[in-house]
Write a structure and sequence with these properties.
Elements lengths: L2 H25 L7 H23 L6 H17 L3 H18 L2
Helix pairs in contact: 3-4
C-alpha cells in the first residue's frame, strides 16, 4: 500500500470516528430527562462489549468444545465469586483441562 492511499484511509477513518463522537453533542443540547432513553444509553456499553466478546470467545481456543467449557466455567465461577482474577483463572483451568484430557 502506498503512502497516499494510506493517508486517505486514515483520514476517512478519523473523520468517521470523529463524526460518531461529535453528532450526539450537536443533536442533544439539553440534559436527557426521559427514563427510557437514559436506561437505554446506560446499557449500550455492556451490550456492545457482549456483542464483541461473545462470538470471539468460541474461536479463542483450538476447539469449540473447550471454549464452551470455559464459558460454562466462567458462568459458574462468576456466580460464586466477584473476583475477576478468580473467574479468569477458573476459565483458563477449565479450558486447559478440556484441551489436555478430552480433545
Amino acid at each position: 500500500m502506498n503512502y497516499k492511499v494510506f493517508l486517505i484511509y486514515l483520514f476517512v477513518m478519523a473523520f468517521s470516528t470523529y463524526l460518531v463522537r461529535v453528532i450526539p453533542f450537536i443533536l442533544i443540547r439539553h440534559k436527557i430527562e426521559n427514563r427510557f432513553v437514559k436506561s437505554f444509553l446506560y446499557y449500550v456499553p455492556y451490550t456492545v462489549l457482549t456483542a464483541m466478546t461473545f462470538p470471539a470467545m468460541f474461536f479463542a481456543t483450538n476447539h469449540v468444545l473447550s471454549a464452551a467449557a470455559g464459558f460454562v466455567a466462567a458462568i459458574i465461577v462468576s456466580s460464586k465469586t466477584t473476583s475477576l482474577i478468580k473467574v479468569a483463572a477458573g476459565t483458563c483451568l477449565a479450558v486447559l483441562v478440556v484441551e489436555l484430557y478430552f480433545i
